[in-house]
Amino acid sequence: MTVNKKAEWTSFEAAGQRFHRLDVASLLGADFTRLPHVLRILLENAMRSAPADETAHLPQAFRDWLEEGSSLVEIPFLPNRIMMHDTTCGPALVDIAAMRDVLAENGRDPDLLMPRIPVDVSTDHSSGVDVFGRPDAFQRNLEKEFARNAERYRLMKWAAAAMPGIRVHPPGSGIMHTINLERLSRVVVSEMHQGERWAFPDALLGTDSHTPMVNGLGVLGWGVGGLEAEGALFGVPVVLRIPDVIGVKLTGRLRDGVLATDIALEVTRALRAIGVTGDFVEFFGPGVSTLSVGERAAIANMAPEYGASTGHFPIDDKALAYLARIGRPPADCALVETYARASGLWFDPEAEPRFTRAISVDLDAIEASVAGPRRPQDRLAAGSTRSAFAPPLGGKGGGVIPDGAVVIAAITSCTNTSDASMLAAAGILARKARARGLQPPDYVKTSLAPGSPTAERFLRRAGLLDDLEGLGFGIVGYGCTTCIGNSGALLDAVRSELGRESFRPVAVLSGNRNFPGRVHPDLENGFLASPPLVIAFALVGTVDIDITREPLGFDAAGEPVMLSEIWPTSAEIEEAVTAGWDVADFDAAYQEAATRPLWVDLDAPAGPRFPWDLASTYLRKPPFVRPQGLLPAKGHARSLLVLGDDVTTDHISPANQIRPDSAAGRHIIAEGGDPADLNVFASRRGNFEVMIRGAFTNRMAVNRLLAPKAPAGFTRHEPSGDIVPLTEAASRYASEKTPLVLVAGERYGMGSSRDWAAKTVALLGVRAVIAASIERIHRTNLIGMGILPLLLPAGAHPDRLDIRSSDLFEIDLDPERLAPRCEVPLAVLRPHGRTLRLVLRAAIETSLEITLLRAGGLIPHVLDGLLRDGGGE
Known about the structure:
The protein is α/β, with parallel strands linked by helices.
């Protein structure tokens, strides 16, 4: 812990102990309570953890923010912990293992590279739905998970032993954000420093875009790419400008039967409509006090879907009640309350802080909703699913399974399973439907994968698990499963219909993303819905219905069963939660997960350096781990890809199943992999050879250089004119010493935080990404790989610029002239002497980002410091 001794410190008592705290309010006086809570936390963090000579200007900078509602002033941020999951931790550990090798090969001690901040690693992204609808589904899926991923899990066990401070939560422990909420978050941290006890707000970074879920408890955290987390782990400061903060005023109270999912989808729609990319969002107003922590967490979880860095709910009585319900000692709760009240972090429902912008959401007006069929922000009334399709559903028919059939129905993801109320709602609807004799059609693949291992105990005690299992919604795992694309194979009856004209199969899931191909590579359409709505759509087996007005089916007496008849009431949900809740479940369930023999008995290497297996198809030393970065080459550049709007990180670097006939699949098979079980891309992120072959192979990533159509993952090489795979084009251009750019439309890089969406682009030789807009986390990942992010001027768009593969790009930029948001002239040289001139803007926010770009990326920057003086940053 770092303590700025020149800051204003005071002491207080809580639960009979004396604590010291930084008195930030005294630095701003009356202005302090005008700040949003997130800025109060950021100011405290900077003033406490950074040297006094680097922070003396910050109180005035925050006063200036109050005047303008915005700022370009940079502030340091020191998280007290970091969270990672297996598919971001795996690549990071591969990088770290390779960096340790570089140190050893240059005569340095590998242990110089040691985490300076504690990191918790969950293993949640590798859980898949291979087996479902049977009592042993969870155990069989867990065994398959270990069989596929043992190499990666051994790497994690090696890292935990070799580098103290890394703690791994084994498979079956739940989803990282639920673990964070239930087990790891302290809200207020107490630490000893030089014989004195200090208290300060819990604040973290996570290598997953849904890290803000913990903001529902009052903890400030946000998602970063794996590269940025690697830097924070090893002493590279996190620097950000004082963020714009968007206020969302909540008024009213939810109507009976309306769930947190419905609020989250409406907030997502409303904030995407005004544009909040990279901003912080804070919820205020009297409606906040009516929401439980579980409901708040679901809304905060969706921050990346509404484009924000984070969505924050301040500390109040509901936060204390939640801490007590999960078994936190009374002394911990007393510390949270006393500190929050004393330091100005306690929530006042009547207060209206100064925000950059603000909108209002009336909770009374929220209705049962879904979002889709392709984007989380496209909210619809629950009964309007058929209206989302053009041409209309039904088409020519002719198949056994109807157009618009629900072929995957999954209660999945931390977003909507971490709140016991939503699990209870699903169980109650299942019980009522089962009593009326309803069952899903046999083409629907059903699953339940809660975020917490406590769910089984809770549902069983509440008497709801049998009913869920009776409809096919038995527990298949405690991990991300379908939400991350690990949905497993479609049923045979569905696979036989794929490719038929007018057959558009659909997934319905309680997750947070429904981008085409994400849930399953053969599914372009999906709807996000609350857990009970997922079951309702599974029962009817189609989205070609107004589910709120048409029957779900008919009972044994031939009477129609309407959704309103089996929908759970708030009183029924509360009764079930009370019956099923037992605080002892938390310790028992997590202890069981940590001591399963599959994990305990897994052997792992020991020593300061990881022993690479040259025959491995999972773990390979990446070529970008070296002291010198991949600096921009001189000369005219060509475009490797030209893309449209909403190209997500799933499109850039897929996470789902690897097909045997794909370029990545053929490579793995050639290296000795099993064609029948090639696993998913998310599990192969330790092998750059696989990941580069998967780049941009999603069929929705249309390369406009190849109009009108061409296979995904291909481009035109110039000047030969050959249409070749991206990897071959990149190799040719590299041999010709031709630098490359990538051009894209709006919201480029939206979605997951995966750093491989930047790593693959770097390995393909791209040195600049030129886009209409770039999502926050992907932008930082690009910079972490030494790729320059550039923004097109207003009104310019790839579709209107008519870029061809024959065009040459001349970027007029001296690296020494880089500055945050600087102008960058671009000349597009076209055949026959024509030239298009544009003034781009560098999507650079801080001086640290300039340092990283000049170094060629984060890894060269860190290695250079360690090799130069052995001390890093």
